[in-house]
Design brief:
2',3'-cyclic-nucleotide 3'-phosphodiesterase activity; about 190 residues; 3 helices; alpha+beta; globular
Length: about 190
């Protein structure tokens, strides 16, 4: 059986921000029992996970739809505001930076979700929690570190979002995510 490629739509922070995220992750690594630490080039804010696109549309059709979303969106700012976890406190599943944004990030995510659901992709049911994953999969060990992750603040990590991208997943590679296409935000249909 041929493996089907999976895709997702995301905002990737600029390299300077990703390098600071990597430094923060490296500082936490000796104290946090996670199996998988995300590659610096894989840091992103997911807008929409698509999974396999087979049977829904081809890659070119997907690119055309996402161009429409970019055309309607104005560039905006986001700030990484602190490190948190998903999962139980004693054995968290995911270590992540939260993202504070103006309403524009949520509007972009909603627009991408709406436009793709009209073309056959499943509409997202969960509420949008923008974040950048640093590490995943606890080693089934109790968390021994004493850091108060929820109170740890990012050091001036903010950036302008002037594009989002379509990524293809390659699970056995590092980095795992290949940028298929970047979509520049144009600031509305009249631009």
């Amino acid at each position: 059986m041929v493996e089907q490629s999976h895709y997702f739509v995301a905002v990737q922070p600029p390299l300077q921000v990703r390098e600071q995220l990597k430094k923060d992750a490296e500082a936490l690594r000796p104290h946090a029992p996670f199996k998988h630490w995300v590659h610096v080039n894989d840091y992103h804010i997911t807008l929409k996970f698509l999974g396999s696109i087979r049977g829904v549309m081809n890659e070119d059709g997907l690119i055309d739809v996402l161009k429409e979303a970019a055309q309607a969106t104005v560039p905006f700012q986001v700030r990484l505001q602190g490190i948190h976890t998903f999962g139980p406190a004693h054995a968290p599943r995911v270590l992540w930076y939260s993202v504070q944004a103006d309403e524009a990030l949520s509007q972009l995510q909603q627009f991408v979700d709406d436009i793709l659901s009209k073309r056959g992709f499943t509409k997202e049911k969960r509420s949008f929690t923008p974040h950048v994953t640093l590490a995943k999969k606890n080693n089934d060990q109790p968390v021994a570190y004493k850091l108060s992750l929820a109170e740890r603040k990012a050091e001036d990590l903010h950036f302008s979002v002037d594009q989002f991208s379509l990524f293809k997943v390659h699970p056995k590679k590092a980095p795992m995510y290949e940028q298929v296409e970047a979509f520049q935000l144009h600031g509305g249909y009249d631009s």
